[in-house]
Amino acid sequence: DGGITQSPKYLFRKEGQNVTLSCEQNLNHDAMYWYRQDPGQGLRLIYYSQIVNDFQKGDIAEGYSVSREKKESFPLTVTSAQKNPTAFYLCASTGTSAYNEQFFGPGTRLTVL
Amino acid sequence: SQKIEQNSEALNIQEGKTATLTCNYTNYSPAYLQWYRQDPGRGPVFLLLIRENEKEKRKERLKVTFDTTLKQSLFHITASQPADSATYLCARPSNDYKLSFGAGTTVTVRA
Fold first, then answer.
1. How many CB pairs under 8 A join A and B?
2. Is the Cβ pair B9, A40 closer than 8 Å?
3. What residues of chain B lie within 8 A of the CB of A7, using their CB?
4. How far apart, in Å, are the Cα atoms of A12 and each of A21, A61, A78, A97?
């Protein structure tokens, strides 16, 4: 089964801790994305990567970091510098379609205690 | 930035009726618009894409229109069923490889 997996599904963090959210895809997609979703708001882009070993900041990159060492993997680290990290985090990927149809993972809900 | 707005947060309708959702955009017309469905606690799933030179697109009970004069897309669910209850998101390209998403409209279909 091809798809995107995210882990863990739920994550609890104490203030001041860094946490890393996992995103893996076996769709052979080049581009991958991280979004944050808060109630009543649209998906906001944190980081995206069009190719291995390259990534760009999205609209709300402050307090987050990513890496793209392998095509299949695009982990997101939420650092202690992120002031309000409690949210639902979604990873997505897209293939070679000219219309950028995005395939999403199931999401990780992060709660800061 | 390329804004996109869904002007209704929630829509409650009776089973069998047609639900109509609106998506408005600003600035230049995008080459296409996309619609996604999102169930609670899950990731969005792509439903339909409509290109700027298409006025209407259909997929089963779903119909999408694109009016570049009004800068608007309408998303219709005909003969709605309780299983159609979900949040529906529209999205437009903001540049290569990026999409801007609306906040979504939550549809509840009453049996």
1. 54
2. yes
3. none
4. 11, 21, 12, 36
**Does A99 reach chain B within 8 Å, measured CB to CB?**
yes
Tell me the chain B residues in contact with residue A40 when contact means C-beta distances shorter than 8 Å.
9, 103
Separation CA A22–CA A14 (nearest Å): 18
pLDDT digits (tens, 9 = 90+) for B4-44: 889 778 999 999 999 999 999 988 888 899 999 999 999 99
Residues B42-52 pLDDT 10s: 999 999 999 98
Residue A81: both structure tokens together: 């510098």
Nearest CA in chain B to A47: B98
Smallest CA-to-CA distance from B23 within B10, B33, B12, B13 is with B33
What's the one-letter identity of residue B59?
Answer: K
What residues of chain A lie within 8 A of the CB of B9, using their CB? 40
Burial of A84 (0-12, 13-18, 19+ CB in 10 A): exposed
Cα distances (Å, whole numbers) of residue A107 to A27, B20, B44: 17, 28, 10
Indicate if the pLDDT at residue A27 is higher than 70: yes
Interface contact A102-B32, CB threshold 8 A: no
Residue B96 CB neighbours (<10 A):
8
Tell me the per-residue pLDDT of A76-86, one tens digit each, with 9 for 90 and over: 999 988 989 99
Say if residues B30 and B92 touch (Cβ distance below 8 Å): yes
Residue of B nearest to A57 (CA): B98
